[in-house]
Amino acid sequence: MNTSYLKLFSIIVILMIMISCSTDTEEETLLAGEDFTSTNIRVLSIDTFSVQLSTMKFDSITTSGGDRLLAGKYIDEDMGIVNSSAYLQLITYLYSIDNEAVLDSVGLTLGYDNYYYNDTTQVSTINVHKLTDKMSTEDSYFYNTSETAYESTPLATKIFVPTPNKDSLYVTLPYDFGEELFNDIRDNNITDVESLNQKLKGLVIQPGTNDDGSIIGFSSASADTYLRFYYTIPDELESDEYTYDMSIFSYYNHIETDPTGLPLEVITDQEYNLESSASNGISYNQAGTGYVTKIEFPTLKDIYNISSNGTILEATLYIEPNTVSHSNIQPLSEELLLYTMDQNNDFASQVTNSIDVVTGFLTTDDSEFNNIVYTIPVIDFIDQKLNESPETEDALILIPSDYNSSINKIIFNDSQRSGYKTKLIITYAIYE
Fold first, then answer.
1. Measured distance CA(398)–CA(410) in Å, rounded
2. Is the N-terminal amide bond of 174 cis, ω within 30° of 0?
3. In sequence order, which residues have a C-beta less than 8 Å from that of residue 134 and are 6 or more positions away?
4. Pairwise CA distance, residues 245 & 196, whole Å
5. Which residues of 292-331 are buried (b: 16+ CB within 10 A; e: fewer)?
6. Which among 79, 147, 153, 218 would be 20 to 30 A from 420, CA to CA?
7. What is the pTM of this model?
8. Mean pLDDT over residues 272-290, rounded?
9. What average pLDDT does the structure give for the chain?
10. What's the short name of a Pfam family annotated to this entry (predicted)?
11. Nearest Cα to Cα of residue 41 among 54, 27, 31
């Protein structure tokens, strides 16, 4: 059972016994009868701890395992120019085509996965380029900073209005590109992965240079996204059309931002912290790009100035999103996971309790009055900070579960800008 629940249960039991044994109470103190105990217990709710917000940016985050291709570009007044390209290596599991087969056409089907961010009513562009190098990495992951060389002239360009609620987007590719691959497989010049990669190292899907619309999510599943060859066999009595597919073997999303002229411009490496006081009272979170808000409680140990003979029953962090920076096309994440960062701004660990991982939820009970906050139980972290030896300089961060495969931003108001809706409340029981 969670230690906080044990503490709370113990206090409730003591208070129930005290109430049943004594009718003598004070405003903040419950006094047990002499026959029960000589201890006074006070339960305080304290909300005066400092909550310090700052923004840092990871040097890189993995983008090769989230089951989503991201392609698109838009200009954001908070984050700057946001751009995502999807790199993919293709594979087939059947290196056999009828000897009489003749290619009719070839195209790339990109299956929508219903994800989008920003304005899908704007016209978008997709440019498909051939890679000139194989996709490679020093470890088993690709990152938002990874890049692979490609031909400067695109194989194909598709201008379209995104419809992420539909099935797919189809991009017709040049016949000569498809014919060379198709004939090499048919004629047994391509017989395995290695010989295929010699001919086709991969593709990159890029947005148009002048696009300012949205970033669209496409599925990486073989049933949804694939390179398809349409062909016929002329000597057959029936003029049936056949298909031959290549699916995605590996992929990654290259995601970058250009925050020139914005407060984020000063963040040049992972160890830099942009204090909210230096960025108009706000801090920044954005999935995919690596921006994240650090949360620290520099005055936490002032609790010992109240009394060292006590225990924390509950600790809750309330943090307010900047509602002006969000809309229907830039929605807020409903849930955020809690992690710790060390003094070098490196991931330390995910915060858990005895039941599950710790999750913060967006609460909108008073949304008509803009009283929208994230509510995060932080008692496990607070207990750790108050009892650690030696002391560390770790901090908290909040990120969505799809941090590696989406582009959603969250702008947080610090305590001053939020009118102290961003705050830490600790329920503290004192034994005297």
1. 10
2. no
3. 89, 148, 197, 201, 202
4. 13
5. bbbbbbeebeebeeeeeebbbbbbbbbbbbbeebbeeebe
6. 79
7. 0.88
8. 97
9. 90
10. DUF4270
11. 31
